[in-house]
Amino acid sequence: MLYAAFPDSAKGLPLFSGMTEQDKQALLAGGKVRNCPRGQMLFAHGEPVTHFFVVISGAFQLFRANAEGHEKTIAIAKAGQTMCEGEIMDSCHAHRVNAVPVEDSVVMAFPAAWLKETAKKYNIFALNLLSLLAQQAHLAEVEAEHQATMSAAQLVACFLQRLCVIYDFDPKGFDLPYSKSLIASRLGMELETFSRTLAKLKDHGITVDGTRVIINDLQRIEAYVCGVCSVSGECQTHQAMEKMGFDEDRKSS
Amino acid sequence: MLYAAFPDSAKGLPLFSGMTEQDKQALLAGGKVRNCPRGQMLFAHGEPVTHFFVVISGAFQLFRANAEGHEKTIAIAKAGQTMCEGEIMDSCHAHRVNAVPVEDSVVMAFPAAWLKETAKKYNIFALNLLSLLAQQAHLAEVEAEHQATMSAAQLVACFLQRLCVIYDFDPKGFDLPYSKSLIASRLGMELETFSRTLAKLKDHGITVDGTRVIINDLQRIEAYVCGVCSVSGECQTHQAMEKMGFDEDRKSS
DNA sequence: CGACACTTTGAAGACGATCAACGCCGGTGG
DNA sequence: CCACCGGCGTTGATCGTCTTCAAAGTGTCG
User: Rounded to the nearest 10 degrees, how much is the dihedral formed by the CA atoms of A151, A153, A158, A160?
Assistant: First the structure.
């Protein structure tokens, strides 16, 4: 079986941290692996919420379209991230976004009730889920703040810097993992603005040629995207620590 | 004792719904009532997170200041709302915002550990908390979307409409519950822009004179602030239903 | 080679921020 | 009782930024 290894990759999720192997095994048995070819919508805005999803590989664009047909990307869910936990815990019965894979992807799908029942049955799982939702809420708050206070250039710089953290890219040179249209939509700006902004970032020590990005001076960028990011960084560092296994830095210090 | 009634008002919170009177009683014993005179900071950005707060009366401005001293109001927490649950569940040890009462207020303060322990001990509480955080995350997401896609006029119209829902104001005539400076900061715009925008809203059926607001045609406003609000309204209606006691509309339908 | 998706570039216009001045009101002190 | 002040809000003028519409460039794939 080619997919035999997939559930194992789910075991490493922070969501299951602190649980016994047996419990994890039993829980993961409740989910089904599912292939999602690029572009084929996994669920649509307004449809009933039936499953909780864990992205095993690939990435999904989560977006909404307003009355005029303009689309705004709410989030991009990559491997290791989850979808629909908010809708399920909020007892919201209709999907609040569309989900489309931006590349060929694989998910694990658990019935919606599985999530609530697991949270009810395992305290540790409930706490992990609480932590996850608290992080999401905070990231969304920070994003709202950024949208309200930052210029396009700052938003882009912040996004690129974040990419390095999330994907563990080398700031000295990496390729954009998504199309520029998708990134622009994610940042809530027009493609034209995004394109022009990339050029302007040269003045701030970021060079972009095609999909290739080089961040010359990370310090300078962090200062540029201002206090908010770096301050809330305390918590993001904490998240990263947890995801890497809690004590990675206890060794080094 | 003047304050004897306060803990009782906390008992009605959705957070405690589904718990026995005894359990509620025992839990509320873990909190202390505290007076917060207007303007006196309850906690500051960067300080250690020591307590979980329930606002009993009054309202708090939660805000951050960036390097240049510019302040952005992240949220306004009014009676019945809670503060710091996200920071605690995220194991974030430093406050991410400043909290200042915008009017004389009263809170109940519970030790931070109380929240985690209660979530661990009572499954129903954990689920209620999950629901709360899921809602917060969603509201924050919607807000980020609004900031990215809406004009100032739409943001203001949306805010005023929301006020009616949250405070149960009569759209036909009500007074702004906060200063215009605070509202402008909450909406991420300058006071001047907010002021000018209020005038423009006459064209859309909203009259504002001083602090008095009259929304002539609610339908029209809902259409104006576009699909996003009304669509995500599914869930907000649901929230409202839950807060009012679950089956208010089951009777009427 | 041509079709098509994606991106870049140009020019015009709308919108919000900023700076500055003024009006309004409640409080304080002479 | 009036003069002064400070907080708050309004209004005007200007400027920079982002969107919009239009056109052209780049790449891939049949």
Answer: 150
